[in-house]
Write a structure and sequence with these properties.
single chain, mainly alpha, Glycosyltransferase, 3-stranded antiparallel sheet, 53% helix, globular, binds glycine
Length: 416
């Protein structure tokens, strides 16, 4: 009876949140993982042929105009601190090594990862150090641990912590925008993702301060960075003298009042991860709140579980953002293990629908070497619109590996 009630509840939840209620799709995890592995092999071949191995050049995007002109390989950017996406390609290679066990892929993962190690000894350029070093060395540490990798993660966490302002209670996200925008201290929602490296470092030889900074950042962000309904601003601006919140604005979203899809995805993933690291029920309740507004609004702005780039862009031709769906799917697979059975079923089913839709309608296939099409990077700047973007692929691979783990009856904890 209990089982039947649970099943009915799951169906009801799916019907309530499903953009196309009643048309539940199945995700074929093994097929999709094999596809990702094939695309990685194609991408590696292309990187080798287009100029030989240069491990300081990191795949970043394949644009719609590239496809129109028959270009199918990744556009790369150098592994500099200004290029925030440099850690995702090494991370994809680690996931692919984990999946395939191929020594060649493992070697390439190590080679690309090594290009980012210098960040542990550099003044912090901005908050993206976690994306850069935890997606690369963090995965490397999990799969092929070494003291050298641990030291780089702990060292980089120390650099990131230097951006923390104790009066405000958050890490400064963009030092370069302080003067340019007249924002005394700014914190962006994306910064939540970088706390994972602080938690890890604190547990692995770094100081207790790293943990305390991460918790304080999450608390302050929870207090100021969200509207009553659980949707977030992209940027929170704070006063460095009083420490008080000045205003919430957007940078990459449609407007100061809108729900930018990827910003909300960072919040969902971020608070799920902070709950895992702290086991503080305030963060679990908050992770659900920021998830529930996303799932509640999804049907309005999506016919297929993949949101528009911003939930409030009224344009009929507003592009989608597959990357937000990948981040949310991955987060929900973890969150589903922390909540009540009813909520857990709802979150897992939603994540599976997202992955099924991505697998059916968003894969690049023969068109290019990325996994997915149709992400949006920086719409207001007109950059990376309806494109393949490397972080969509990173979280897609992560989500598929997480789903496979769950299907095998193993819990999802940590970066996979
Ligand atoms: N600024 C990071 C992002 O585009 O999500």
């Amino acid at each position: 009876m209990k089982k039947i009630r649970k099943g009915l509840w799951g169906l009801l939840c799916a019907a309530l949140v499903c953009p196309v209620a009643g048309q539940a799709q199945r995700v074929d995890v093994e097929r999709d993982l094999a596809y990702c592995h094939r695309q990685v092999a194609r991408a590696l071949d292309g990187l080798k042929e287009n100029g030989g191995w240069d491990y300081t050049q990191m795949p970043r995007n394949i644009l719609a105009e590239d496809l129109q002109q028959g270009r199918t390989e990744w556009n790369c950017r150098p592994a500099t601190p200004e290029e925030w996406c440099g850690g995702f390609w090494p991370g994809i290679l680690w996931y692919d090594y984990e999946y395939s066990g191929e020594a060649y892929v493992g070697r390439q993962a190590r080679n690309y990862t090594a290009s980012l190690g210098y960040l542990a000894d550099r003044d912090p350029y901005d908050h993206d150090l976690g994306f850069l070093v935890y997606c690369s060395f963090g995965n490397g540490m999990r799969i092929d641990p070494s003291a050298a990798y641990r030291d780089i993660i702990v060292g980089t966490a120390g650099q990131l912590a230097r951006l923390f302002n104790p009066r405000v209670g958050t890490i400064l996200s963009w030092p370069r925008e302080v003067e340019k925008q007249g924002w005394p201290h700014n914190t962006i929602m994306d910064n939540m993702m970088n706390l994972e490296m602080l938690f890890w470092a604190s547990r692995n030889g770094g100081s207790q301060d790293l943990y305390d900074i991460a918790v304080r950042h999450a608390e302050t962000t929870m207090e100021h960075h969200f509207r009553e309904d659980g949707s977030c601003y992209h940027v929170a601006v704070y006063d460095t003298i009083t420490g008080g919140f000045i205003k919430g604005v957007t940078h990459q979203g449609y407007s100061d009042r809108s729900m930018w899809a990827r910003g909300q995805s960072w919040a969902i993933y971020g608070y799920t991860m902070v709950y895992r690291e702290t086991r503080d029920p305030r963060f679990l309740a908050f992770a659900q709140k920021v998830t529930d507004i996303y799932l509640k609004r999804l049907p309005e702005r999506s016919d297929d579980w993949v949101p528009l780039w911003d939930f409030d862009d009224p344009s009929p031709s507003a592009p989608k953002d597959a990357s937000a769906a990948c981040v949310v799917a991955s987060a929900l697979l973890e969150l589903s293990g922390y909540v009540s059975p009813e909520k857990g079923t709802q979150y897992r089913e939603a994540a599976e629908q997202m992955l099924a839709s991505l697998g059916k309608n968003y894969q690049s296939g023969d068109r290019c070497v990325s996994f997915l099409l149709h992400s949006t990077g920086h719409h207001p700047a007109g950059s990376e619109i309806d494109a393949s973007i490397v972080y969509a692929d990173y979280y897609y691979y992560e989500a598929l590996l997480r789903l496979r783990r769950l299907q095998q009856g193993r819990p999802v904890l940590g970066i996979y």
